[in-house]
Amino acid sequence: MAALHGRTALVTGAARGIGLAIGERLAQAGAHLVVHDRDAAAAEQALAQLHGAGLSASPLIADLAEPAAPARMREVLEAEGHLPDILVLCASVETRETWDKLSEDAMAAQTEINLHATVRLIQAFLPGMVARGFGRIIAIGSVQEARPNPTHFYYAATKAAQTNMILNLARTLRAPDVTCNIIQPGAILTDRNRAVLTDPAYESIVLGRIPLARLGSARDCAGVALLLCSEEGAYINGAEIAVDGGLRL
Q1: What Cα–Cα distance (Å) separates residue 90 from each residue in 36, 94, 212?
Q2: Residues 204, 213: Cα–Cα separation, whole Å
Q3: What residues act catalytically?
Q4: In the CATH scheme, what architecture does the domain 8-240 have?
Q5: Interatomic CA distance for residues 180 and 171, integer angstroms
Q6: Domain Ketoreductase, which positions (predicted)?
Q7: Is 154 a residue whose pLDDT tops 90?
Q8: Residue 225 clears pLDDT 90, i.e. is over it
C-alpha cells in the first residue's frame, strides 16, 4: 500500500470508535492526522495514544452543531498549515427512536450533524482539494440505509440522504484525483452501541442476521478507508462499500 506521507487527514469524531481506528490507520500510512471532536478530554486521550505510537497528530475541538464551526475549523487548520487532503465524515448523531416516538429534538440534532454539517464541511474543505489537485472525501454511512431498524427510523433516513449527497458529488464534481466514496459499517462494537450489542438476547438476534456470524470491530473499517485514500484506490469514485459481514443481504 502506497504511503500517505505529506498528506493531511481530517477525521471528524475521531476521539473514539470508527473515527479513531480510521485516523490511526491513515497516520500509520504517513498522513498527519487532525483529530476532530467536540469532547476535548477524549481527544487528548486519543492524541496520547497516537503520539505514544509515534504517529503525527494534532487536535481540533469544535461542535459541528454550530453552523459557523466548519468555517472556523478551516481558518484554524490554514493557520497551522494543516488544510486537509483527506476528509473523513465520521461524526454523527444516532438516536434510537421509532416513527411514533420520534421527537423534535432528535430530528433536529440528527439533521444538524448528519446532514447540515456534512454540507458545511464539504463547502469548507473541498474547494482547497480541487485547487491543489488531490482530495479524498469519505462519508461513514450505515447498514441502516439498506436495512433500517424500526428503532432507527430517522437516523437511517439522514444517512441515506448523506450518501445521496456524496454520490451526487462523485458524479458531478469531475475533478481529476478528487474522489468521493461511502463506507457503510454494519454491527460494529463501539462505545456508542456496546450496551445494546452486548445484551445477550439482542446480540443473538443480530448475529443471526450476519452471514459471518460475528460482530465487527472499528478496525474492520480502517483498511477500506486507507485503500480509498491511497494511490491504489485512486480510481474508486462513487462507491458504497459495505463493511458489515453481509448484514445488508
Answers
A1: 10, 12, 25
A2: 10
A3: 155
A4: 3-Layer(aba) Sandwich (3.40)
A5: 9
A6: 7-191
A7: yes
A8: yes
Q: What is the pLDDT of residues 9-58, one digit of tens each?
A: 999 999 999 999 999 999 999 999 999 999 999 999 999 999 999 999 99
Looking up cell 480510521 gives: 22
Least confident window among 16-20, 73-77, 194-198? 194-198
What is the identity of the amino acid at 92? S
Q: Which residue has the higher pLDDT, 117 or 198?
A: 117
| Residue 153 to residue 67: CA distance in whole angstroms | 25
150 grid coordinates: 424500526
Residue 196's pLDDT band (cuts 50, 70, 90): confident
